[in-house]
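Hi support team,

I'm opening this ticket because the web form for multi-chain structure prediction keeps timing out on my end. I have pasted the exact lines I submitted so you can reproduce it. The total is 1073 residues across three entries, so I didn't expect it to be a heavy job. Is there a limit I'm missing, or should I split the entries? Thanks in advance, R.K.
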Amino acid sequence: MMSERTAESAEAASGTGAEDAAAGAGVPAPAAAPEDSAGSPDAAQAAGPAEEAAEETAEEAAAPDPETTPWTGRSAWVFPGVTAAFGLLALSGLATIEPPPHATPPGPTVFPAVVGVLLLVLSACMAVVNVRVARRGPSAAPPMPPVAWRPVLIVLGALAVAAALLQALGWLLTGALLFWAVAYAFGARDHLRDAVVALAMSAAVQVGFSLGLGLPLPGGVLELMFP
Amino acid sequence: MPMRMPSALARVAGGAAAAALVALALVDVSRGAESGDGAAEKMLLVAPAAPGGGWDLLAREMQNGLREEELRFNVEVQNAEGAGGTIGLTQTVNRAGQANMLTMTGMGMVGAVETTGSQHTMEDATPIAQLASEYLVVVVPGDSPYSDINELAEAWKADPGGIPVAGGSMGGVDQIFAAQVARSMDIPPEDINYLPYSGGGEVLTSLLSGTSDIGFTTLSDFADQIESGKVKALAISSPERLEGVDVPTLTESGYELEMSNWRGVIAPPGLTEAETAKLEELVAELRDSPSWADTLERNRWTDTYQSREEFEEFLDEEVAMTQETVKELGL
Amino acid sequence: MESFSLLLGGFADALSPVNLMWAFLGVLLGTAVGVLPGMGSAMAVALLLPVTFRMDATSAFILFAGVYYGGMFGGATTSILLNTPGQASSIATTYEGHKMALGGRAAQALGTAVIGSFIASMVGTLVVALFSPTMVALALQFGPGEYFALTVFSFVAIAAVVSGSALRGMAALLIGLVIGMAGIDGQSGAARFDFGLPVMLDGIDVIVVTVGLLALAEVLYVASRGDNAPDLKAIKTGTPWLKKRDLRRSAGPWARGTALGSLFGPIPGSGAEIPTFLSLGLERKLAARRERRGGEKSEFGKGAIEGVAGPEAANNSSASGSLVPLLGLGLPTSATAAIMLAAFQQYGLQPGPVLFERNADLVWTLLASLFVGSVLLLVLNLPFAPLWAKLLKLPKPYLYAGITVCSVLAVYAINSSVAHLVMAIGIAVLGFGMRHFGVPVAPALIGVVLGPIAETELRRALAASSGDPSILVGSGISIGLYALVLAAAVFSAVSAVRRARARKAETETEKTPVA
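Hello R.K., no limit was hit. The queue was backed up. Here is the completed structure from your submission:
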């Protein structure tokens, strides 16, 4: 059973691990360690045992199909909740959509209403399944995989910042910042090189799409450099 | 790739490559920041439609014409699609005072302002000129029993709800045209059974597959199909018969209706008289050029140029007419 | 055989050095743009439309043909390697393709995709060249009632393929339907779920949903797995070439996928999603049957090459097929086709029956250049398949940072608007949640794509018939489609009952000795 505590501990684990995202963790996957991301050519060869490990991971990933694994613990109620929320949203259309007086039936509210009802029914069915799984006891299903919240939040934060700053900062800087932050979330720690790669990537997009294909990308503050 | 090379030398090389890329990108940024004078002045054309839409085409044609006639070299087209063009209108109004941009507009935008409840209306922008028009036609499938507009009017009047008619999107030019035609035939516009489609190709398919019986659409979308006999054009909305188009006008058939799907340009509000006059002059120069004549011919547009004053008056009339029709249709 | 000689004339034009260069450039650009996550052939063509403005018409279309096909292949590459399809028609490929890549068979997956695409586009283009008028006539048999039947059929067919858990699949589909409803309702003009925001009036762009749900959600999901995520870099890229066994296994799927794609491609509104999923489902069933009959074991679920070969062939032949309504009726059936239509109009050409007579040169050169484009694609990409597979060797932080930056670019490029970006981030969070809770995302995307079509056609049908529902079963086509749906439902119900009984019997026999 995936209690809140396990979720927390998973978060904590990822928090400590984030200093060195891959190296210290349980699964022996040295190839993901930052030094190797540094990309020494012998890394690939040196990663002999890693290849076996990777095959294992690949099979592991394929073995318990997450799409048929029942939900357990408190987080089991998240998705039924999301489903119900969408159902309510669709049903709210009955109140918020103003059909024009001469609309031919079925009007614009009929489909949303039908879909909304179906979503609520599905949510209820999921709830029933959840209760049944819970009754069978904690051993009935494998626990949900832990979520490493830290990298997820860094990526989301970087996306939000990028959306907020894109117009003001311009593509070149925003793109580089986004690249750098996501790379950081995925464990890159060679800050200088990461920054150079990020700038190069962002610049390549600007050159290819704006200079080459004429897609207007915002210049932002950099335009101030050219009065 | 820089990150695959281990040695310090490779790092330096990678850094240099990155620096070169960044430098090139900065060149691109500086290009965008440039603002020159005269023909070197930067010009922004806003197409309030997706690439490939009618206003996009107008903007690209203008961009090309301005360059070819050496009126402006640095012309950028920006697409601001959405909500029937009102997103583009709002962007234009929000750029109050910017004197180097023109936004494409047309009959469709006037209708969309009414139907989408847009926060900005045509009056908020500065009208510059009308450029071109296309006329609308009433078409029926080639094997339709109606051979002229009077026969069609009779049948339609007898059962307006039972005859499905097809045209472009809700509140768009085609629907307003359909409503106007119905009214000229003494059919209450709100009684007609209008099936909206997203484009001329869909309207054609609807007619040919027998889903709808009458189509209301722009002539240029259907000119080839009319010629091939797949569909018959029963009437056209132009004031007089068009050269090379053997279709009677609505007026000559006894229905008091003239209408055009016109296109023009507007500018942001808050411009000085001198700035506005400069934009008007630029558009007038383009309109008188040989490359614009070619544009009109290639796109089968009719030249209905109106200078600022005329266009402003015309706009007022169009807005009033559209408001009335939209109200009648209950949109 | 008149069309044949016309086609030969087209080849004479298409093979001129200048046009050959344009075709090459197109394929190269198309592949380059298509291979970026979140970008498919529609994006590639849209970006190039302004570039080609006032280029000589023939050259422009040759360029487009190259970009179109190149983009299709590029999309398959990211689906297979990174599990981030650039467009809805590449989703079916990810199922087995990405598993093949994880299993160290990326090069084979890419190889079978290239060859399958090649065969399918050759056959598809040939079908267009020879049978276009017949196919236009077929497409005109489809009224709103038939379209609605087709969408119902698609929902069922796709559900049968993707559902791990029926409940979750249904929920995903319905959530997709709700997302697809946002914006102005085309039939009545009423605004739905716009929350008073003007940007929402046009609804949520399919590219926003695709990028958010597939590319960005994948980045978030991989990030959330921390060290448990499969380590792409450590995967052996394996031997680069297709083995005899791979070829033997791919041959059937290529042929069947091509046939499915050619069948659905010309039907306006059906898109490439339906044939790709049908092909995936068909190959899975056939492999299971082969295993039951004592043949080779089915590798579905572990990276079956059939599951890449079939959908990729279907994808490409349906792309060729969609040229039929485009050229014959001026009716675009996909985002890419819509932009190609705009390109035609830019040259003062009105696609339709007269096009073949008035601009015969152009049409036949275009068709010939599609053949040339396919060949170039094969020549250009088959040798590079192992090289593309090496993409997985990039350091993981850079790989996913690159995916993120490209996704943001793809979304921003739709309309130069940050609002779209915000929507994409929201949808990415939804997609991440779905991935985490084992809810399939493909049905959600299918709901977004096909939902509006289903609703529009149903309401259009009822409007056209003044409310008489008999229009829904008014033709042989719709009755046939519903019959297929019914048969499939009965069949799967029966087999489910049987399986349940078998399982029950099994557990009982297991229990007896213990008791």
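A quick check on our side: Residues 1-63 of chain A have pLDDT under 50 and may be disordered. Let us know if the file doesn't open in your viewer.
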